[in-house]
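FORM 7B: Structural annotation worksheet

SECTION A. Query
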Amino acid sequence: MKFRHTAPPANPGVPLAPMIDIVFLLLIFFIVTWSFARFETELDVSVPAAEAGKTPNRTADEQIVNVRADGAVLLQGTIVDDAALLQRFATVAKFNPNVSIILRGDQETDFKHIIRVLDICSKANIWNVAFATARPQS
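SECTION B. Predicted structure
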């Protein structure tokens, strides 16, 4: 009488279903956190401190404009000149007249550079402009 020799089952390898689930969860996490990262802050700009400042409700359609100490204007991480800034603001204001602009001017910036950006906002018919400040350090 011959008995069959039963071999142990072969190693099935790495289970792919849990790995795919984890990859999709990471993808969702990074997509969600990317939307919060859009509220850019330029690290070279140190805004002045104010005690009366308050934290506004952030909106998805707001535009953050950074003005460096040398007068360079940054929009979405790139340096733009006045004509490009006016064209961009006019396009945004045409589609959303209530767009809000957060103006982050360095504390060492000459006031004329801030006024130049405010003039561009006025020419583009943007009225909702806020100035960013920092909390005073105690």
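SECTION C. Observations
The beta strands are 63-67, 73-75, 78-80, 100-105, 128-131. The mean pLDDT is 80.

SECTION D. Sign-off
Analyst initials: ____
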